[in-house]
Amino acid sequence: MEAEPDGRNVAEGNAKVRQQAELVRWAFLIGAGVFGTTLAQPAVIKLPLQNLLKTDLHVAPEGMAVFFAVSALAWYFKPLAGILSDSVPLFGTRRRHYLLFSATTAAVLWLLVGRVPRSYGSLLGAVVAMNAMLVMGSTVVGGFLVEAGQRYGATGRLTSARYFVMNVCLVLGGPLGGFLAARSFEVSTAVCGAIAFSVVAVAFL
């Protein structure tokens, strides 16, 4: 008769261990998603693009300000990305395939930014499209955070981890941008593309 409570305690302990392991995996996915959709933003690693606009295209400060303002417009429509992913499944899911698609497309568009004709309009069009994909990825990562937080009662912890990763990305953006600005623009866009793509492997796992 005394073995039953022990068996029940063991089962509860195992369930907690499994739940904790699942939470760690969710946290890793969310952290990777925040990293890929934050550090890859042109507004965060902006020095290579600024350097190109200034030295190659001779864009005035006013034109450069307009460039980055227009390219970031997609972030103001982030709620629409959430409505889309919640309402229209992509290949049967409302999160996973949206994240895979947006991260892969953002990486490809970063590479395209390094290959398009060196004109103001061509660069702006590619950057606007790439930012739209980063917005979708960021929105889906936020959806993952809400779902995992509610499921495991860890919304506060996951939110704190999200802001920690975001702040780390903002701190890294300046030095990394300066380092890349001293390299060829194609190298810079390849690195940014790799950052955007980094979440894909984690999402697959």
Structural account:
The chain is mainly α and 205 residues long. The protein has helices spanning 3-38, 47-55, 61-71, 78-87, 96-113, 120-152, 155-181, 185-204. The longest helix is centred in the N-terminal third of the chain and has 36 residues, at 3-38. The radius of gyration is 20 Å and the shape is elongated.
At a glance:
Helix content is 80%, strand content 0%.
List the helices and strands and how they pair.
Elements: H1 3-38, H2 47-55, H3 61-71, H4 78-87, H5 96-113, H6 120-152, H7 155-181, H8 185-204
Rg: 20 Å
The secondary-structure class comes to mainly alpha
> Helix tally?
8
| Unreliable segments of 5+ consecutive residues | none
* Portion in strands: under 5%
What distance separates the N and C termini? 43 Å
Largest sheet: none
Order of helices and strands: HHHHHHHH
Mean pLDDT metric: 89
Helix content: over 70%
What is the total tally of β strands?
0
Bulk shape: elongated
Supply database-style keywords:
mainly alpha; elongated; 8 helices; 205 residues
